[in-house]
């Protein structure tokens, strides 16, 4: 087993736990469109076990993936969970028959989702629950108080250890922090999407993690001449360079790239450990500016 400190980026203190900055996102373990079971169930279980055996201690999931599929795979592969494993989930949306993500943020909706996550993961307390706001197009302005306060109530009841927010504006982060402590913000951010630059730095100063989703561009993989040039110079893949750039961008950035392949998982880990020169970074920074 690789020790967590040997993974790219080392570790970060997330709430009361020390986690690897290089984590694993489980969304791709579900079927096409994040609906239904994977074509290769044994392969999905193998990826989860490989992630833990390689020293990863931070797994990101949601009961909406599948729905229930990824959580059930995590439970089958890893339960009883190692004491070092930190599982983050999220609430705020359900799934419809067409694979859509209808918003579900009324207090009763959120309580139901938290209990569904507890049941499918097989735990009595969730390590971290992110309150996902906005919609599939991104954050939307407006108060998040009612939804966030519901998670705070569930935290007081002992069902949640830590709370985060996801798909939010900087103003909503301030609002949430005025209600209760948060340990992370999970927003879309990568080489080409730098809108949260100031927020990343503010959170780093306050010891709060920033967890970028779609670190490699999501459904539209990152493509850039500058990225390709740096990758060619380093004899690496563009995706490896993009992950390494995120690791270098700020110490509070935690990566959760997903894959359904053990080989690809190992490639991601190796790739995120590249060495970038100041010139490389300057060239890469030009992409998002």
Mind explaining what this structure looks like?
By secondary structure, the chain is an alpha/beta fold. It contains 10 helices and 9 strands. The chain has helices at 41-53, 69-78, 107-121, 145-156, 170-179, 197-205, 225-234, 238-249, 262-271, 278-285; strands at 11-14, 17-20, 24-25, 58-60, 86-91, 126-132, 160-166, 184-186, 209-210. The strands form 2 sheets. A 7-stranded parallel sheet has the order 3-4-5-6-7-8-9, with helices on one face. A two-stranded antiparallel sheet has the order 1-2. Helix 3 (107-121) packs across helix 4. The longest helix is centred in the middle third of the chain and has 15 residues, at 107-121. The model has no long low-confidence stretch (mean pLDDT 94).
């Amino acid at each position: 087993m690789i020790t967590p400190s040997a993974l790219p980026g080392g570790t970060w203190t997330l709430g009361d736990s020390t986690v690897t900055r290089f984590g694993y996102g489980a969304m791709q373990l579900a079927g096409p469109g994040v609906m239904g079971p994977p074509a290769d169930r044994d392969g999905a279980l193998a990826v989860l076990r490989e992630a833990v055996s390689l020293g990863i201690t931070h797994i990101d999931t949601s009961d909406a993936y599948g729905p229930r599929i990824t959580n059930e795979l995590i439970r089958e592969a890893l339960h009883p969970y190692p004491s070092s494993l930190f599982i983050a989930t999220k609430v705020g949306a359900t799934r419809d028959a067409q694979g859509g993500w209808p918003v579900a943020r009324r207090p009763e909706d959120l309580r139901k989702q938290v209990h569904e996550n507890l049941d499918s993961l097989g735990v009595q307390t969730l390590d971290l629950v992110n309150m996902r706001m906005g919609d599939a197009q991104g954050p939307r302005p407006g108060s998040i108080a009612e939804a966030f306060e519901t998670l705070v109530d569930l935290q007081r009841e002992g069902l949640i250890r830590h709370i985060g927010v996801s798909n939010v504006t900087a103003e909503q982060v301030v609002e949430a922090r005025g209600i209760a402590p948060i340990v992370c913000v999970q927003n879309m951010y990568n080489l080409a999407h730098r809108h949260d630059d100031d927020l990343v730095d503010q959170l780093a100063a306050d010891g709060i993690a920033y967890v970028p989703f779609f670190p490699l561009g999501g459904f539209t993989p990152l493509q850039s001449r500058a990225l390709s040039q740096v990758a060619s110079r380093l004899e690496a893949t563009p995706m490896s360079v993009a992950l390494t750039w995120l690791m270098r961008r700020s110490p509070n950035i935690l990566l959760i790239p997903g894959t359904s392949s053990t080989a690809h998982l190992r490639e991601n880990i190796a790739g995120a450990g590249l060495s970038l020169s100041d010139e490389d970074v300057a060239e890469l920074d030009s992409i998002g500016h």
